[in-house]
Q: What sequence folds into this?
């Protein structure tokens, strides 16, 4: 039987994406309705398709000398994000208060530092010997999925339980579920959660191979929507059951699997409904308590239709909802944390962002999709993150416990 | 902290350790002979529909074999009722190599199949489709501490929902060249543990955080295997379970040591 869990205080949070570094930049972009999507620039000498949400300045900002071995685009973004909103200080302060081994690190990523392997292969191919990778190549500190959590643990000094969740686009939503279990089980007193994913040729050309990259900036929920715009982002939250809830509360998390298809969602949305329902039950809430839903809303035809079916099954058509991927792009393994932070900002400021880039709402969709940004207080927000392999995660966040 | 969980069954798939029933005596004796990885057969998983069976790559075949072995004594529909933890240090290195090779060509052409097989949770996706499993599933890495992390993740799931067992599988394959230069794993290894809330009749494992050094294996060829593959870091624990006696095993975690105190089922 599913019973409610105690709310967990979120004492600090931050996010960095194409809209800017830190939560203030995000809030300003949401208010000014400024999309950060741009035509994809040349990456590693190759022209990718579509539009992207790219974080400025990463190419020029190597990691500090002490952490040089971790240097790759993904860990650079982790480092940039850690320095926003005083997050690094908050994390180090938790380490000092609770003891290093009582602070856990659970981060999500889909591709970690795979760009380093792409570059190493390209370099080897140029020297006409694809059987020999360059001397500088360091798999463990860059490409490996766990590299991002190991780097963040080193940078913050946290030495409690740690692993990296890599479940495609639900990765950094599921970290909240994992961390809340670890906290309830007494494995740690605080947990650094979040996720980082950066632009790489694997995802830019991989989604293109699936014909899922839009030739225009993505248009979630639009009748003419034609795919995703890939973005990069990094973000973190500090969960402390006995800390100050400066940023709000994690009320519940729900996880499920589709058992349907490797790269398409179940059109009937059974798994998505199960994840949302579990998040509500764990948070002791009913659907009418939810004031805003941040949709997964990638902008592909099938995702938005399947999610609409799931949302209306549970909420009907009146709960305000939107995808914010028109601002940031689909930040893949970092989408969960990016959109959890957006929900927490919405709760804090009474902001319900509209579905950006939606020009003609798809008449087939029945959920309460916001075509205009609204300003009014809400107490509960739900964030959906779904991914390849049929993985679903929903988070219920609250202004109060 | 410590967490106590129960163990219902074990599955294994590795060269020379094809299933738990035959692996037990080898683990007890630690005879030095190893089967050669080149002769290892990655069997196409019978659980999958024909199309997916064909598409499933070596790593998924390896993980499925260990899972099927762990469920060999369970009713046929058991898989659909289990939460799952898929723990792999590096994921599908064959597919990642294929993608990076394709990206290094002047004309880039990736296949949709290659891309969806490249995600770290691809095996979990196939498992969900194969068994009609709609339960929660996670896919993780903690580099060389991946096995201990998977065990701890499963234990917190059981602490939250004791009535629902968890299937935890840990697996890694040797990468092809040139990727093996970055991750020099030479032998495939997978194990699966069917875990449940502790009972008075079955194996119990109590997990606790420790400092110190990891438990080695007393025979050099086996110790070499343990250190070769992140999933094989489980071997000292598997040996303890094969011996059937109480014992304490220190596993490498991503940050420190995870101690597992095992108590066998009553004779």
A:
């Amino acid at each position: 039987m599913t019973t409610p869990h105690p709310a967990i205080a979120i004492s600090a949070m931050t996010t960095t994406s194409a809209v800017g570094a830190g939560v203030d930049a995000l809030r300003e972009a949401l208010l000014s309705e400024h999309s950060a999507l741009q035509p994809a620039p040349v990456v590693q000498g190759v022209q990718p398709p579509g539009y992207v949400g790219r974080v400025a300045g990463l190419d020029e900002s190597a990691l500090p000398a002490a952490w040089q071995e971790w240097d790759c685009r993904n860990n650079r973004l982790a480092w940039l994000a850690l320095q926003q909103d005083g997050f690094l200080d908050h994390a180090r302060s938790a380490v000092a208060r609770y003891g290093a081994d009582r602070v856990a690190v659970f981060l999500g990523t889909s591709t970690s530092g795979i760009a380093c392997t792409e570059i190493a292969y390209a370099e080897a191919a140029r020297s006409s010997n694809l059987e020999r990778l360059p001397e500088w190549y360091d798999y463990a500190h860059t490409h490996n999925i766990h590299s991002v959590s190991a780097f963040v643990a080193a940078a913050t000094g946290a030495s409690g339980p740690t692993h990296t969740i890599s479940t495609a686009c639900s990765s950094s939503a599921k970290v909240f579920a994992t961390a809340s279990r670890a906290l309830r089980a007494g494995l740690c007193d605080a947990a650094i959660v979040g996720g980082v994913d950066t632009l790489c040729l694997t995802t830019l050309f991989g989604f293109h191979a699936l014909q899922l990259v839009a030739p225009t900036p993505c248009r979630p929920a639009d009748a003419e929507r034609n795919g995703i715009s890939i973005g990069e982002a990094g973000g973190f939250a500090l969960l402390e059951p006995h800390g100050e809830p400066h940023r709000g509360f994690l009320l519940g998390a729900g996880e499920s699997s589709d058992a349907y298809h490797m790269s398409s969602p179940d059109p009937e949305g059974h798994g998505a409904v199960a994840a949302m329902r579990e998040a509500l039950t764990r948070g002791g809430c009913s659907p009418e308590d939810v004031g805003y839903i941040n949709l997964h809303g990638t902008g592909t035809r099938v995702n938005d239709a399947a999610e609409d079916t799931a949302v209306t099954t549970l909420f009907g058509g009146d709960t305000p909802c939107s995808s914010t991927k028109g601002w940031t792009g689909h930040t893949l393994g970092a989408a969960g944390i990016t959109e959890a932070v957006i929900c927490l900002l919405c709760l804090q400021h009474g902001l319900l962002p509209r579905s950006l880039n939606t020009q003609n709402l798809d008449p087939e969709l029945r959920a309460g999709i916001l075509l205009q940004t609204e300003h009014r207080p809400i107490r509960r927000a739900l964030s959906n993150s779904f991914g390849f392999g049929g993985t679903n995660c929903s988070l219920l966040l609250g202004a109060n416990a | 902290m410590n967490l106590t969980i129960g163990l219902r069954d074990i599955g294994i798939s590795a060269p020379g350790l094809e299933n738990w029933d035959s692996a037990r005596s080898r683990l007890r004796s630690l005879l030095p002979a190893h089967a050669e990885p080149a002769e290892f057969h990655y069997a196409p998983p019978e659980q999958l529909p024909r199309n997916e069976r064909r598409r499933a790559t070596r790593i998924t075949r390896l993980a499925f074999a260990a899972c099927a072995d762990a469920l060999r004594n369970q009713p046929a529909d058991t898989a659909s009722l289990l939460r799952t933890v898929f723990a792999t240090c590096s994921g599908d290195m064959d597919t990642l190599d294929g993608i990076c090779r394709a990206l290094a060509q002047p004309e880039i052409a990736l296949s949709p199949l290659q891309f969806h097989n490249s995600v770290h949770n691809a095996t979990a996706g196939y498992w969900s489709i194969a068994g009609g499993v709609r339960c929660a599933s996670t896919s993780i890495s903690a580099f060389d501490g991946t096995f201990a992390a998977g065990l701890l993740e499963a234990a917190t799931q059981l602490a939250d929902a004791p009535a629902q067992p968890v299937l935890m599988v840990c697996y890694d394959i040797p990468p092809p060249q040139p990727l093996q230069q970055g991750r020099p794993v030479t032998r495939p290894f997978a194990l699966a543990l069917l875990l449940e809330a502790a009972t008075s009749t079955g194996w119990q494992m109590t997990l606790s955080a420790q400092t110190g050094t990891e438990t080695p294996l007393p025979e050099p060829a086996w110790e070499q295997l343990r250190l070769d593959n992140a999933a094989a870091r489980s071997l000292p624990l598997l040996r303890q379970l094969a011996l059937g006696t109480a014992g304490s095993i220190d596993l490498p975690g991503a940050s420190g040591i995870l101690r597992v105190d095992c108590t066998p089922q009553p004779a």
